[in-house]
Amino acid sequence: MNVWQALGYFLREALLSLRRGWKVSLLAVLTIAVSLFVGGLFLLVTHNLQLATARWRSEARIIAYLAAGAQQADIESLSASLMARPEVTGIVRVSPEEARERLREAFPALEDIVEDPGATPLPGSLEVSTVPEADSESLQPLVEALEASSTVDLVDDDRAWLGRLDTAVALARGAGLLLGALLLAAAVFTIYSVIRLSAYLYREEIGVMRLVGATEAMIRGPFYLEGLMQGLLGGATSILALGALWLTSRSVGSGPLSAGSLTGDLVFGHFLPGTVLLLLLVLGALAGLLGASLSLQREMAGRPTDEPA
Amino acid sequence: MSRRLPELPSRVAPETYPPAQGRIRFAQVTKRFRDDTRALTEVSLEIDPGEFTFVTGPSGAGKTTLLSLIYGAMVPTSGTVLVNGRNVGALPVRKIPYLRRTIGVVFQDSRLIRRKTALENVAYLPRILGLPTKEQRRLAQDALARVGLAHRMNAFPEQLSGGEQQRVAIARAVVNRPSVLLADEPTGNLDPDLSREIFELFAELNGTGTTVLVATHDHSILKTIGGRILSLKEGRLAGDERRGPEPYASADTGVPK
Predict the structure, then answer these.
(1) B159: how many CB neighbours lie within 10 A of its CB?
(2) Which of A252, A207, A135 minimizes the C-alpha distance to A260?
(3) What does the pLDDT look like over B141-156, one tens digit per residue?
(4) Which residue of B has its CA nearest to A305?
(5) Which helix H or strand E contains A91, and what residues bound it?
(6) Is ipTM strictly over 0.90?
(7) Residue B16: which region, alpha, beta or left (left: phi > 0; alpha: psi -120 to 50)?
(8) Cβ contact (<8 Å) for B75 and A210?
(9) Which residues of chain A have a CB within 8 Å of the CB of B97?
(10) What is the pTM of this model?
């Protein structure tokens, strides 16, 4: 029997077994699908959060709020010294009038307060753009220099909260992967049980196969393929479910997760990349193979003989 | 005797051993189990190609062990078992399946695969040999016809009577035209008429040159069928005699006896 004939034989036997025991096979497929769906959902959300944080990081600035009564000459001197730093790429000066205009545009409901002549005037500021690769730590000397300047009243670094968001995203991703891994382990156990049950039910059959001259590969092959197919089906099902959820969220007209809404774009703006989808399929296949392998190790250990103990 | 055994296919799978002569030889074979029970003690015998041999003896005499040593289900503790010149005990595990493809085995319980039809059960060996599907089917149909069950080929084992199941098992054992056919109490569960029928089948196979070795304690069969009789007692060879004419060596087979 050549390789293609053997594969054909494995495929026919595995399909027969899947069809014969479709209920238990369905259980195994769904268990894998649920595990991978949960893991995939966390990956989808964290993937989008990471995209968002990367976008925000590229737009992140250090804002130095100028002290009341800061002199024009001091401000220009400060700007010049900042521009001399290699990590600084640009400075935009925002006057108190511009600040008020921005506030009015961003929060129209607050117009009354903004226009109140008795309200405290908004401070002017310097918006300092930095090189994209700079992080909160490498910009610390710049922040300290600004804080030390008598021209500056308060310094706000976007990267500080972006760093905290990164940590939160990493934690969420870790928790999701852990949960997915636990569920995947449960799926492996389910496949192990399903195939072991098959191997147990067909122990006599395996004995007959050995009797008439089937090699171990001939006997094991269909079981491995059955596990692999269950795993792949589980992986594919999880991808379809993730895709359906994503498409549904994008097609909903309104709501917190709809396309165009802040939270909707934040968590469901983009679908998972192809490599991650492939990873889900591979994980499903590995879970199926592992389950089959573990079950056969127990049922088919030892020499193919009927020798009594 | 008009029915004929199926012919070998024109294309023989490479992993089968070449057609062998069916010679069996035991040299000082002892088999001891792990609990130190002795199943066979220093048994020496030689069975010529084409011989029809009975192995008799009471339960526990070592009949099943003797047969198991021939098809590699057990390994002798000492001594040598040669089948077609091959030392079975020294065969690596991975080679045992190839040995078994040259030996047909029939048990008291038919040991059919329950989820497969009679045809699929018989076609299993041609299938794992990688023969073309048509060839698998033709061989299996011929073998079933040979045992008179062509009309039951699509039945599952549970739909067959005990005698029919045993005949399917025989068809499976001979589908690859083995050089040796082993039968371990093959008629233990059958009534006398069916038993006689089964032995007639064995005899027909023997008539085409297959070495047949039947373990039985059914003395009524021994009285009606001639052949070589090996008697085992407490694991030792206690007798080796020929009774009556060679049972089914007929002139039309052309097989020298």
Answers:
(1) 12
(2) A252
(3) 999 998 889 999 999 9
(4) B73
(5) strand A88-94
(6) no
(7) beta
(8) no
(9) 210, 213-216, 218, 304
(10) 0.64
